[in-house]
C-alpha cells in the first residue's frame, strides 16, 4: 500500500454481503495504520452497497455532515412469509398463500410515498431508554417504540410472485426492512427482505465505490481517496 495523503480523506466502498460495517473499519485500520476511521451510516450484514468511510480525524469529525444525507436502495421482497427481523437473519414463518395482482401491489405502494410514519423495528441498533432495541429483542422482549417521520419515494422495478423488486429513496433514519414488513401486512401476504443494496448516499454513488474484497495491502488507497 502506498503512503496516505496528508490529513487523509473519504473512501467509497461497496460492502460485501455477510460482512459487518465494523469489518470495514477494522480492515482499513489494518491497511492504513490509522486509528481514526469511521463511516457515515451502517449497513446490516446481509446487505451490500455503498459505505462512506471517513479516514483521519479531520474527516471523522465531519461524520454528522454525511449522516443526514438521503439515500437510495434497491431491494427484493419475498412474499408469503415473515421473519422476526424482517430480513434473512431470522427463521422464516409461513404467513399466506395469497398471490396479489400487480394492481394490488401498485395500489399499496402508493402508501409508501412522501411523508409517512414508521415504527423502528425491535431488531435495530436504535436506543430506547438507553438500551439498544436488538439486545432486548434477543431476550424475547418487545417494548413500545415511538413512530418516526420519514420521507420516501418507492418505485416498483418488477413483480413476479413471490418477489417484488423496489428502488427506495429515503430520508435519514428509514428502515427498509420495516417498509418490507409493512408492505407485506398491507398486501395481507406477509413479506420479508431478502436482498438490500445501497446505491447512493447524498452526492456519492455505488458505481464509484471500490469493492470490499479488493481492499488489500496491494491497493493504492491514496489514489482512491476523495478530499
TrEMBL record:
Residues 177-210 form the tRNA pseudouridylate synthase B C-terminal domain. Residues 29-176 form the Pseudouridine synthase II N-terminal domain. It is an enzyme of class 5 (isomerase). Keywords: Isomerase, tRNA processing. The keyword ATP-binding does not apply. Its EC number is 5.4.99.25. One of its GO terms (molecular function) is RNA binding. GO terms for biological process: mRNA pseudouridine synthesis; tRNA modification. NCBIfam families: TruB (TIGR00431). This is tRNA pseudouridine(55) synthase. It comes from marine sediment metagenome.
Amino acid at each position: 500500500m502506498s503512503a496516505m495523503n496528508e490529513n487523509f480523506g473519504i473512501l467509497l466502498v461497496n460492502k460485501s454481503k455477510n460482512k459487518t460495517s465494523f469489518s470495514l473499519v477494522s480492515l482499513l485500520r489494518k491497511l492504513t495504520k490509522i486509528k481514526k476511521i469511521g463511516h457515515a451510516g451502517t449497513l446490516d450484514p446481509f446487505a451490500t452497497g455503498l459505505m462512506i468511510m471517513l479516514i483521519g480525524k479531520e474527516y471523522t469529525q465531519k461524520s454528522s455532515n454525511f449522516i443526514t444525507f438521503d439515500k437510495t436502495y434497491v431491494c427484493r421482497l419475498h412474499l408469503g412469509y415473515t421473519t422476526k427481523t424482517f430480513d434473512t437473519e431470522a427463521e422464516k414463518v409461513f404467513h399466506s398463500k395469497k398471490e396479489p395482482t400487480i394492481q394490488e401491489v401498485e395500489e399499496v405502494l402508493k402508501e409508501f410515498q412522501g411523508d409517512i410514519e414508521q415504527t423502528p423495528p425491535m431488531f435495530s441498533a436504535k436506543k430506547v431508554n438507553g438500551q439498544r432495541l436488538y439486545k432486548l429483542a434477543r431476550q424475547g422482549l418487545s417494548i413500545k417504540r415511538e413512530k418516526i417521520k420519514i420521507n420516501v419515494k418507492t418505485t416498483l422495478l418488477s413483480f413476479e410472485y413471490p418477489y417484488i423488486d423496489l428502488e427506495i429513496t429515503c430520508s435519514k433514519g428509514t428502515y427498509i426492512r420495516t417498509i418490507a414488513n409493512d408492505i407485506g401486512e398491507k398486501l395481507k401476504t406477509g413479506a420479508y427482505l431478502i436482498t438490500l443494496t445501497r446505491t447512493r448516499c447524498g452526492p456519492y454513488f455505488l458505481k464509484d465505490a471500490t469493492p470490499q474484497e479488493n481492499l488489500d495491502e496491494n491497493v493504492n488507497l491514496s489514489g482512491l481517496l476523495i478530499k
